[in-house]
Each structure stands twice: as structure tokens, then as C-alpha cells.
Amino acid sequence: MRILVVEDDPDISRQLVAALQDQGYVVDAAKDGEEGHYLGDTEPYDAVVLDLGLPIIDGVSVLEKWRRAGRKMPVLILTARDRWSDKVAGFDAGADDYVAKPFHMEELLARVRALLRRSAGHATSELSVGPVMLDTKSARVTVNGMAVKLTSLEFRLLAYLMHHKGKVVSRTELVDHLYDQDFDRDSNTIEVFVGRLRKKLGVDVLHTIRGMGYCLSEPDNAA
Ligand code: CA
Questions:
Q1: How remote is the CA of residue 159 from the centroid of ligand 1, in Å?
Q2: What's the 41 CA to ligand 1 centre distance in angstroms?
Q3: DSSP 206
Q4: Which has the least CB within 10 A, 4, 39, 107, 136?
């Protein structure tokens, strides 16, 4: 899952990026409203953490512009503790949730997880397909209850497909959501990672849909 952080405070931004990366997300960071708006407008993010007090364009205006342009990704706003009017303006502009500063990183991470799984239509932090289970909270993967060790890219790949279980996901979409903006993107490498992931899972859940992409779904019941 790919996340955009728009925050002008360099310390908070650094902490946010590090904590989100630790959770296995790909993270892009913008330090003002203009850059943040541009990235959110042109890149496909699964969620955005948006500070409201930003240089050049304020957070509420950034959010309004995205929503007017039809950008639907879930957005968590960061507000000042005592500014209830900021929260109202943020929700009216199209925010999905908020955290007031100063915040506990654990709470922010939990809210991001909740946004991601709600937008994918899941009710709990544990995602499963057949015998494969992915706990988005601990970032652990098991198959039939046995832990499976994945590299960070394999984990991101599986997490994205898990959040879009049953849907066909194209290679281009995977490249867009698994790498950050600075990465030298080559959609051919996805094939290699899918192969490795399939081998590590050892069960038949990751299907190649010829000419279209990949689909994670329950193993076919043997007739
Ligand atoms: Ca700020």
C-alpha cells in the first residue's frame, strides 16, 4: 500500500515516514501544500496523511481540490489540539478521519490501518484468503498457521493483493502502489516477485490472469 504524507514540520514528517515504512507501506513525502496537492492529484495513493497548516496551499484547500477533481483516496488530517473548527472544516472538505497534534504514533498507525481496510471493505485487521492470513497490525503472514518470512517487497505485494482480494490487479497498478515516486519502475520485475511470493506461500491462491494481471482468491476446490 502506498501512502502520501503531507507535513511541513521536518521532524514530524521524518517520524511519520519512518513509522509508516516500518509497517511495510511505501511512503512519499511532501513538505508544502502545492507539492502535496500535485502528488495526490497525479499519483495513486491508498491513503494520505495531511497536515492542515501547510505553506503555499493550506491542507483544507488541498483536500477540497482533490475531492472536486474526483480523487477518492482516504485522507487522515492532522489538526491542532484545540482547533475544533479545523476538524469541522477538514471533514466538510472530505477528510475521513483526524488525529490531533501532538499525537501518539501508535494511534495514527491504527487509524491508517483502519482507513485502508475500510476502503477495501474489510472489517478487521486480519486479512485472509484460503489458508493465507495477513495481520496488518503486526505485519505477519501465516499459511495454515505457520509463519512465512517475506521480504518487504513481497509483503507489500501480498498486502496490496489481499486488500483487493478477488479483483484482477494489473502489473501497472502494482508498480504504482508498490514503489515510491523515485523508484526506477520496471513492470517486468513484478513477474519475478509474484513468482517468489507464490513459491513462499506454497498454496494456490495467487492466480495469473493472462494479459490482464493477477488475482488473489481462494484456492480452487479440487473436483
Ligand atoms: Ca504544519
A1: 31
A2: 20
A3: E
A4: 107
**Banded pLDDT at 124 (limits 50, 70, 90):** confident
Q: Which residue carries 484460503 as its cell?
A: 130
Q: Distance from the CA of 105 to the center of ligand 1, in angstroms?
A: 17
Ranges of beta strands (E only) in the chain are 2-6, 26-30, 47-51, 75-80, 97-101, 126-129, 132-135, 140-143, 146-147, 168-169, 206-209, 213-216
Tell how far the Cα of 9 is from the centroid of ligand 1, in angstroms.
6
All domains of the chain in start order, with CATH: 2-119 (3.40.50.2300), 126-221 (1.10.10.10)
Distances (CA, A) of 195 to 190, 210, 214: 9, 15, 11
Q: Which residue type, as a one-letter code, is found at position 192?
A: V
Question: What is the arithmetic mean of pLDDT over 102-128?
Answer: 91
Q: Which residue has the cell 471533514?
A: 91
19 CA to centre of ligand 1 in angstroms: 18
Q: Is the pLDDT of residue 223 over 60?
A: no
